Amino acid sequence: MNLDLIEIAKASMILFAVIDIIGGLPIIVKLKKNAGGSIQSEKASLVAGAIMLLFLVVGEKILAFIGIDAASFGIAGAFVLFFMALEMVLGINLFKQDETTAKTASIVPLAFPMIAGAGSMTSILSLRAEFESINIAVAILLNIAFVYIVLKMSGWFENKLGESGIAIIEKVFGIILLAIAVKLFTSGVKTSFFPHLL
Questions:
Q1: What pTM, to 2 d.p., does this model score?
Q2: Domain ranges, residue 136
Q3: Running DSSP on this structure, what letter comes out for residue 2?
Q4: CB under 8 A, 24+ apart: contacts of 156-160
Q5: Residue 119 within a domain
Q6: How many CB atoms lie within 10 A of CB 113?
Q7: Chunked mean pLDDT (size 10), the chain, 198 residues
């Protein structure tokens, strides 16, 4: 279990693209309005980080218990990421948006499933096949720290970037997420159906 800066950087970039907290700024702004003008940044960040770290440690055990292998989970997650990316690139709504209240907005849907959602879980599981767990854990903590900063400064980002700026960033990260989804899908298919090609 050695710290590897390259692995940490790669894992951080993948999680950064999947979480896409900058692209989620429009949703955050809406949640703040629904929650009376404020959200609990600390609570949202801590809960999301705890969920992601817990899944890093016991995710594979949970899947094994219910009889699902990592490759199948990766393929399923690739479809989720694919449709999330389509939403971002095309500006359409494919997933139902849950109504929230001021008491729950910081946890649902902000911490889960917006930050620590299906895409994050799939990515963490996929990263475990390539990188050391300690490096993934550091990448998770770095991303959660960035998420906290963005949540705290969401009003500032909204004013500086404007609607058009946020929309451009969302589409750029949507394309990156689309590429990640394709990679996850092809890796999962190779592992499940063509292991001799690995």
A1: 0.72
A2: 5-190
A3: -
A4: 157/22, 157/25, 158/25, 158/29
A5: yes
A6: 18
A7: 90 89 76 72 94 92 83 76 79 59 66 80 84 95 96 85 78 80 81 72
